[in-house]
TrEMBL record:
Gene source species: Rubripirellula lacrimiformis
EC number(s) recorded for this UniProt protein: 1.14.13.113
PANTHER family linked to this entry: MONOOXYGENASE (PTHR13789), PUTATIVE (AFU_ORTHOLOGUE AFUA_6G14510)-RELATED (PTHR13789:SF309)
Keywords: Monooxygenase, Oxidoreductase
InterPro entries linked: FAD-bd, FAD-dep_Monooxygenase_BioMet, FAD/NAD-bd_sf
A Pfam family: FAD_binding_3
Species classification: Bacteria, Pseudomonadati, Planctomycetota, Planctomycetia, Pirellulales
Stretches that traverse the bilayer: none
GO molecular function: FAD binding; FAD-dependent urate hydroxylase activity
Protein name from the UniProt record: FAD-dependent urate hydroxylase
Top-rank taxon: Bacteria
Domain FAD-binding: 2-317
Length: 392
């Protein structure tokens, strides 16, 4: 089987590696002219590190990542609201939670693809897909085209050519907030590798260390409409939004500059009932774009790659059955994660002072051990991992 993958991000590269490992002929087409790493960093939760192990890169990830141990919730005034023990999650699921800069994860995936002889064509901007008798033809903006038995659309949430072919609707949904992201470095700044999640009124600031001296961060603020966000002065608005917050936040924000800070206006997609048409299949954000509040964007893209490889291996020579089985196995889980991310965003970016105070009080009463158990069950669904698989 000849497979053309549109998109050279995490979803596309992981899918290429997974399919190459089961003997498929694979090539990747990326619209940008070089490797990209939109986003500052990622927590690879245990479901993600399970897949990265299956792809043969977990040891490489460990060499550049941090083993985060806890996730603390803190109010904008510095009051502790609660703490989740990530080590309990790792124990329950049987794989580590590792924080990594996105650029480092991308280098690892590109390196693995290169080892396997997977060609990555940069500057290949897909413009249209045609269904033809012997497969699907992808047309690129430079006038060239390619024919494949299977086209995998891993071309993102905002302008997916594959999504437009499969479902017609390619309109993302604005979810009412904007994020600023960046990387912060200072010697011995993070003695404990703990995620710190600060909550305010219509605002949130997260700090995720990847080593003792490096962390990535994201500051989010509620905003009424996406068009208005485009008019904001990024750095001025960032500093104004988090003025007076606890010291780590203030220090990070004060050192941010236009050159090393990126602003993202946040969109997702409504869950889709259909992920494929003819021999064109959607994966990653093209199929199920979720908000950062889901914590699972990269994890679910990686799961797509692993499950698709399993289904194609289970139905050799019958990729129509394989992709239908893949969609059936993945759709419910990813829809739940997308909607959970929306719900949490609504809670975190609430602008009602009374409701935010109630939210913070509820956080102090949360059973975090039960939360860990729920995360392990939900994120491990459909994967051969966890205590029951290791010892059952």
């Amino acid at each position: 089987m000849d497979v053309a993958i549109l998109g050279g991000g995490i979803a596309g590269l992981a899918t290429a590696i997974s399919l190459k490992q089961i003997g498929k002929t694979v090539r990747v087409y990326e619209r940008r002219r070089s490797m990209h790493h939109l986003g500052a960093g990622i927590v690879c939760w245990p479901n993600a590190t399970f897949v990265l192990s299956e792809l043969g890169v977990l040891d490489r990830l460990r060499s550049v990542a941090g083993a985060v141990t806890a996730m603390r919730r803190i109010s904008k005034t510095g009051d502790e609201l609660g703490s989740l023990d990530i080590r309990q999650l790792d124990s329950a699921m049987g794989f580590p939670s590792l924080s990594v800069l996105r650029r480092d994860l991308m280098r690892i995936l590109v390196g693995r693809a290169d080892e396997l002889g997977i060609p990555i064509h940069y500057g290949a901007d897909a413009a249209m897909i045609d269904g033809v008798q012997d497969g699907n033809r992808v047309h690129f903006s430079d006038g060239t085209s390619t024919l494949a038995d299977l086209v995998v659309g891993a071309d993102g949430r905002m302008n997916s050519v594959a999504r437009r072919y499969v479902v017609g609707n390619n309109q993302p949904v604005f979810q009412g907030f904007v994020n600023w992201i960046g990387v912060y470095q200072r010697d011995s700044a993070f003695q404990r590798l703990e995620i710190c999640d600060y909550w305010g009124l219509g605002a949130r600031f997260g700090i995720v260390p990847v080593s003792e001296s490096t962390a990535y961060w994201a500051g989010g603020v509620a905003i009424a409409d996406a068009d208005g966000a485009c008019d904001l002065d990024s750095i001025v608005q960032l500093r104004r939004a988090f003025d007076g917050w606890p010291v780590p936040v203030g220090e990070i924000v004060s050192q941010g500059s236009a050159s090393d800070t990126r602003r993202l206006i946040l969109y997702d997609h409504d869950p889709l009932p259909q992920w494929h048409k003819d021999n064109v299949l959607l994966v990653g954000d093209a199929a199920h774009a979720a908000l950062p509040t889901s914590g699972q964007g990269a994890g679910q893209a990686l799961e797509d790659a692993w499950v698709l490889g399993r289904e194609l291996a289970a139905f050799p020579g019958d990729h129509e059955t394989a992709i239908a089985a893949f969609t059936q196995k993945r759709r419910e889980k990813t829809a739940g994660i997308t909607l959970a991310g929306r719900r949490l965003a609504g809670i975190l970016f609430n602008t009602d002072e009374t409701e935010c105070a109630d939210r913070d009080q509820k956080a102090t009463r949360t059973d975090y051990a039960a939360m860990v158990a729920g995360m392990a069950t939900g994120w491990g669904a459909g994967l051969p991992m966890g205590i029951e698989h290791r010892f059952g």
